TrEMBL record, chain A:
<feature type="transmembrane region" description="Helical">
    <location>
        <begin position="240"/>
        <end position="261"/>
    </location>
</feature>
<dbReference type="GO" id="GO:0055085">
    <property type="term" value="P:transmembrane transport"/>
</dbReference>
<keyword id="KW-1133">Transmembrane helix</keyword>
<dbReference type="GO" id="GO:0010438">
    <property type="term" value="P:cellular response to sulfur starvation"/>
</dbReference>
<dbReference type="InterPro" id="IPR000515">
    <property type="entry name" value="MetI-like"/>
</dbReference>
<dbReference type="GO" id="GO:0005886">
    <property type="term" value="C:plasma membrane"/>
</dbReference>
<keyword id="KW-0472">Membrane</keyword>
<keyword id="KW-0812">Transmembrane</keyword>
<feature type="transmembrane region" description="Helical">
    <location>
        <begin position="121"/>
        <end position="137"/>
    </location>
</feature>
From TrEMBL, chain B:
<feature type="transmembrane region" description="Helical">
    <location>
        <begin position="245"/>
        <end position="267"/>
    </location>
</feature>
<keyword id="KW-0812">Transmembrane</keyword>
<feature type="transmembrane region" description="Helical">
    <location>
        <begin position="91"/>
        <end position="110"/>
    </location>
</feature>
<protein>
    <submittedName>
        <fullName>Sulfonate transport system permease protein</fullName>
    </submittedName>
</protein>
<feature type="domain" description="ABC transmembrane type-1">
    <location>
        <begin position="80"/>
        <end position="264"/>
    </location>
</feature>
<dbReference type="Pfam" id="PF00528">
    <property type="entry name" value="BPD_transp_1"/>
</dbReference>
<feature type="transmembrane region" description="Helical">
    <location>
        <begin position="213"/>
        <end position="233"/>
    </location>
</feature>
<comment type="similarity">
    <text>Belongs to the binding-protein-dependent transport system permease family.</text>
</comment>
<keyword id="KW-1133">Transmembrane helix</keyword>
């Protein structure tokens, strides 16, 4: 009981940075966003403020109405999401598979591990020119880049998840005379699962950021990043702010979904 | 913080065993270094062979000799050095501002439960917007000058620094705080001897993360909107299909990334040891 409680505490601490914690039992959390919106609105209506630089809330709302009803904003949003998820699944799968392999084989970890850790230190965006040359500036290049972003956190976390299995668990497996397969299926994977989820959760956030980066820096295509490029070149601040709001909302939804999935898949831990 | 050293002083060893132990240590180190170098050497060999027998066209992967030549020429005429210095300057300025403000704000939020209940959710929701997405907005507001880069880098460094500082200060174990109360420390002493040492590892994680994010933001900003610096060099090489320039710039970016990581880790161990001695 004591051990599980401690484990759970460390887990919730490590995922804290990734997660919104809705303790919305009081009105307090709503005060800051409300105040920010009010100040924004008030500043936009101050005399001498150029609406091109600071559009009012109703201008952004009008842009949203026009964009979703007359223009194809939904299509742009879906294009970005599709790209993001394709890259996330490719990179996440590769990352989990590699991480598990490194965790289960110390020799492999000693041979490949240092190279992979050094590779992590290369700034992600520095790969863009190379990736765009290898995979083209179109869809393939973008998805490859997003997959690279999703690969790193899943790799590190699943690797650590397996490598940090307590020694007593290994002893338990020996006492129960479990074979290699039994150890992996019954002890190692369930024990590493929370850490793997942390990696996937973090990869979801990283790949969303990479999606925006790819859309800004690769060839122009339908998607929120492309819309932002257009908004910047045509000086449409309301469009830019709308895109920011959409990007943030998708991030929040991703977070909530990831937390729900995590809770569902790890329900047995709380029993 | 570990107090293991007080419990288990190193056992005195006779000269012979010390040498044997040293040799053994050297051997294990050499073994792991050899294993670690196997993959990079293999990749390098593959690269050299690809270039020698021109399996891959130069526009996809230039020969190592060409990249080496570009690096040497760039160093000789100072163009690489200038680009590196400009990039470093930008990143350090942005990181200094962003991380400093981040640790301060995060520490305040971590210390006050009331403040946290008001601001924390909003703060975390703000964090959901990828920092690169602010670039077009900043470009409209500030043009593509130096201010854009510094603000973007500062923002990229601010968030991790603030979040980890918040976590570190908030999660000081209750027992430590009780100890402080029992010793009747005043606010200042509590801060210096209880809260800061306990939060320091978390703060350092935030700084490391912040520096990595700052370096990323710099590369992105220079790729998109710049006329000098390492990122610009890469964008230029990409447009002219000169991949040797791109790879040379990447090599320097990677080197600096590794150097940042190593320097901060060293600073952290140093500072923590100093804390331990100070607590003695």
């Amino acid at each position: 009981m004591n051990l599980t409680a401690a484990l759970r505490a460390t887990r919730s601490r490590s995922t804290y940075l990734l997660a919104l914690r809705p303790n919305a039992k009081s009105w307090r959390p709503w005060l800051a966003p409300l105040a920010a919106l009010l100040i924004w609105e008030a500043c936009a209506h101050l005399p001498g403020v150029d609406p091109r630089f600071l559009p009012s809330l109703e201008a952004v709302a009008a842009r949203a109405w026009e964009g979703f009803v007359h223009d194809d904003y939904l299509g742009h949003l879906l294009a970005s999401l599709g790209r993001d998820l394709a890259g996330f699944f490719l990179g996440g799968l590769a990352g989990v598979a590699t991480g598990l392999a490194l965790g289960f084989s110390p020799l492999l970890a000693r041979v490949v591990g240092p190279t992979l850790m050094t590779y992590r230190q290369i700034s992600l965006f520095a790969w863009i020119p190379l990736v765009s040359m290898w995979f083209g500036g179109g869809e393939a290049g973008k998805i490859a880049f997003i997959a690279m972003a999703a690969f790193q956190p899943t790799l590190v976390n699943s690797w650590r998840g397996v490598a940090e299995i307590p020694k007593s668990y290994r002893e338990l497996s020996d006492v129960l005379l479990l074979g290699r397969l039994g150890f992996v299926a019954l002890i190692a994977l369930p024990c590493a699962l929370p850490q793997i989820f942390t990696g996937l959760h973090s990869a979801l956030i990283c790949s969303w950021a990479a999606t925006v980066g790819a859309e800004l820096l690769f060839n122009l295509a339908p998607g929120l990043g492309g819309q932002m490029n257009e908004g910047q070149q045509m000086f449409l601040m309301d469009k830019l702010l709308l895109c920011i709001l959409l990007l943030g909302s998708v991030g929040v939804v991703f977070n909530l979904l990831a937390r729900a999935a995590e809770r569902r898949c790890l329900r047995w831990r709380t029993l | 913080m570990s107090f293991g050293w007080t419990l288990a002083p190193p056992a005195p060893v006779a000269g012979g065993t010390a040498i044997a132990a040293g040799l053994r240590q050297l051997r294990t180190f050499a073994a792991s270094a050899g294993l670690a170098l196997a993959v990079p050497l293999l990749l390098a060999a593959l690269w050299i062979f690809c270039a020698r027998y021109s399996w891959i066209p130069d526009q996809i992967l230039p020969a190592p000799a060409a990249v080496w030549q570009t690096l040497r020429e760039g160093c000789a005429d100072g163009s690489l050095r200038d680009a590196t210095l400009i990039s470093l300057q930008r990143v350090l300025a942005g990181f200094g501002i962003g991380a400093g403000a981040g640790v301060l704000v995060g520490g305040l939020l971590g210390a006050s439960r009331t403040l946290r209940s008001y601001i924390e959710p909003f703060f975390l929701a703000f964090n959901q917007v990828p920092h690169i997405a602010w670039m077009p907005v900043l470009m409209v507001l500030f043009g593509i000058g130096e201010a854009l880069k510094i603000i973007l880098i500062a923002w990229a460094a601010f968030m991790p620094a603030a979040l980890y500082a918040l976590q570190g200060v908030r999660d000081v174990p209750e027992g430590f705080r009780e100890l402080g109360r029992a010793l009747m420390l005043d606010r200042r002493a509590t801060f210096c001897t209880i809260i800061l040492p306990s939060a320091l590892p978390s703060i350092f994680t935030g700084l490391r993360e912040g520096l990595a994010h700052a370096w990323q933001a710099l590369v992105a900003a220079e790729l998109l909107a710049s006329f000098e610096g390492l990122g610009y060099l890469m964008a230029y090489g990409r447009q002219l299909f000169q991949l040797d320039v791109v790879l040379a710039a990447m090599a320097i970016i990677a080197l600096i990334g590794v150097a940042f990581h190593v320097l901060l880790s060293m600073a952290e161990t140093r500072l923590r040891r100093w804390r331990l001695e100070g607590a003695q």
